[in-house]
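Morning!

This is the sequence you dropped in the shared folder:
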Amino acid sequence: MALVVFAGTIGRSVIGGLSWDNMQYLVGLAELGHDVYYLEDCGEESWVYDWDAQQLTNDLAYPTSYLQDCLEPVGLADRWIYRAGANSTGIEIAEFDAICAEADLLIAWGDALTTWRAAYDSPRRRAFIDVDPGFTQISLAQGQHGLHKAVDNCESVFTTSPRIGTPTSPLPTYGRQWHHLWPPVALTEWPYVPDAPSQGLACIMNWKGFHDVEYQGAFYGQKNAEFEKFADLPRRITREIQMVQIGADAEELQRAGWRVRSGEELTRTPSKYRELIQSCWGEFGIAKHGYAAMQQAWFSGRSTCFLASGRPAIVQDTGVGAELHAEGGLLTFRTAVDAARCIAEVQSDYAAHSRAARDLAERTFAATEVLPRMLEIAAR
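The structure's back. Tokens below.
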């Protein structure tokens, strides 16, 4: 058994999907028998969007209440610290520093540790997990200071892209060997749901959550830059399709035939997010423009949740189709015509695709299958 400190962004995200992206690791590590602690370090100040007040807040009470609500159901109610400057909530700082001194591994998830404190040097090994492949490497190449700190202080670096660092990738590597890691899903928290779905296809998306980038003359954008290719999809299919979104023009989407629903309301907590996914017929996934353009086989942690639930995932091809060779349950498309054809294929034998979705999750994305290899590499 190893003592593992996982640094994430649950309290700062205060949204169910991103919380699960972190929690899959926490649950998976615990299920493997490891002693797990959660760290969230905001740097000098904690600025979080308060969904209730509809404004930013630097009061630690809001994000830490949300964090506690996320971690208590998975057995980590008293195993976390939330830090901002000299202030903290949860485990006392001195106690947490002692935990770091005993830790076998510190995992920095995405941009969780742009502030690096002396205590984070104490664990025997440190690992960085890139969850925004391509954009992360470009940011490093362009000198993003906070990200450099985390990557430079980690002996091993992982990415959810299986192509970065290979001869087929045009992207920079920052001089590091990037080990591939599929986004894990904790199958005990995401069981197969045999019940007939009550909702139609769901496209869950944050319209423009991050920044566009340019690299060597190429533009890499967000989902808003990619959506126009598929805007008329509702008119091409017979099944209802809903857009569960944050930040989009709802009236424009409705005119195009989409059933528009509030992502803020339906995905705010981990439990609401899971309820939404498990009530849906399947996923219709549009990738960031950059992921589609880079073709580095990015795959979403959201899609793994659909698959684990036995809900087929119909997703835009980022190169992942050629990597996974799925025989049902997961279908990829490049055009609206392709997407409509994939939806019709799933409709023709939904039961088979539902079972194949769960099988793929168990075989490829189960946290208990994905994480041991990461831990083995990180321990070297």
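Headline: The two ends are 16 Å apart (CA to CA).

More detail when I'm at my desk.
O.
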